[in-house]
Amino acid sequence: MTVARPTRTRKDQAKDPARDPAPPKSSKKTKRAKRAKASASAGPPPGRGAAGHRTDLLESMLRIRRFEERCVELYSAAKIRGFVHLYIGEEAVAVGINEALTPEDAVVSTYREHGHALARGITAEAVMAEMYGRTTGSSGGRGGSMHLFDASRRFYGGNAIVAGGLPLAAGLALADHMRGQPNVTCCFFGDGAFAEGEFHETANLAALWKLPLLLVCENNLYAMGTALERHEAQTDLAMRAASYGMVAWAVDGMDVEAVEHAARRAVEGIRTGTGPHFLELRTYRFRAHSMYDPDRYRQKAEVERWKERDPISLLTDRMRENGELGDRDLARIEQRVTDEIDHAVGAAEQAPEEPVEHLLHHVTSSSTEEVW
């Protein structure tokens, strides 16, 4: 497990030029500090040993992988339609980050958000029903692949606009900050969003106001079909983020335990009131940008090299070496995941479509609707 060292700001260097700073701790025993202490550990949650925790991580990643693979089959059979952006290869990011968050924290996602939603705890049944456009979906069948949403889990949706979720995340973080709530808002976005004005406006205000915001950049090296080095003069995104005065560092986004360790450390720093933190998760998508994409902008050999660091295989191999996982154990996990996804597909196909009479529902809000 490897975690890159944090990028120092100028203030940090002035304090101690010999080493990178650990996230500072608050001297006040506030609710925020107490929450930070509870979530700071990089180890497994209470009641689960290291082996059990790794098993949970593996099952979560397999759930995402098998769900996405089923989406490929269903899309090819024309059972689900529209734009579909698969998360295959990036599972370690969603799973590792969500391990550091509490149910009270907020999550804002992108259009590639199936994995984020499943890792957040939205059921495969609710996500699959949304893919089918059925009323039992997480957004009532109105959002589809790019607009999953569940306010009960503080999952404030995917966003079809590149970088569109960043200002929304800043607003959620500001609201919690003003209310004195010890919550963190986590915003996922890709390397392509780094070039958008929304990122720089959000980073500046978050640092200026010390908002409790975790900025998670999923750097999969391509903004749709444009390679990172073709659209960014400086490709060290963590270093650039640090220029706003926030703690920032790069992480091996293919190693779920490295991601979790970094996320817990970042969240601890945020909860102590030190302001936003930025994580550059260096990862890779094994499939094309979307199901419509012919994927002609990268070499097959490059994809195969990255598949050698498949996050699921990395964790599986580690567990086997530790004597924590056997063939029967893996088969049981696979069967549980398969049964769960089979049930989700069956339920989605039986669920009703929204009647045409509801066409104008939810177009405007009423004073009786709960919107927070």
TrEMBL record:
<dbReference type="InterPro" id="IPR017597">
    <property type="entry name" value="Pyrv_DH_E1_asu_subgrp-y"/>
</dbReference>
<dbReference type="GO" id="GO:0004739">
    <property type="term" value="F:pyruvate dehydrogenase (acetyl-transferring) activity"/>
</dbReference>
<protein>
    <recommendedName>
        <fullName>Pyruvate dehydrogenase E1 component subunit alpha</fullName>
        <ecNumber>1.2.4.1</ecNumber>
    </recommendedName>
</protein>
<keyword id="KW-0786">Thiamine pyrophosphate</keyword>
<feature type="domain" description="Dehydrogenase E1 component">
    <location>
        <begin position="60"/>
        <end position="356"/>
    </location>
</feature>
<feature type="compositionally biased region" description="Basic and acidic residues">
    <location>
        <begin position="9"/>
        <end position="19"/>
    </location>
</feature>
<dbReference type="Pfam" id="PF00676">
    <property type="entry name" value="E1_dh"/>
</dbReference>
<feature type="region of interest" description="Disordered">
    <location>
        <begin position="1"/>
        <end position="54"/>
    </location>
</feature>
<comment type="function">
    <text>The pyruvate dehydrogenase complex catalyzes the overall conversion of pyruvate to acetyl-CoA and CO(2).</text>
</comment>
<keyword id="KW-0670">Pyruvate</keyword>
<comment type="subunit">
    <text>Heterodimer of an alpha and a beta chain.</text>
</comment>
<dbReference type="InterPro" id="IPR001017">
    <property type="entry name" value="DH_E1"/>
</dbReference>
<feature type="compositionally biased region" description="Basic residues">
    <location>
        <begin position="26"/>
        <end position="37"/>
    </location>
</feature>
<dbReference type="InterPro" id="IPR029061">
    <property type="entry name" value="THDP-binding"/>
</dbReference>
<dbReference type="InterPro" id="IPR050642">
    <property type="entry name" value="PDH_E1_Alpha_Subunit"/>
</dbReference>
<keyword id="KW-0560">Oxidoreductase</keyword>
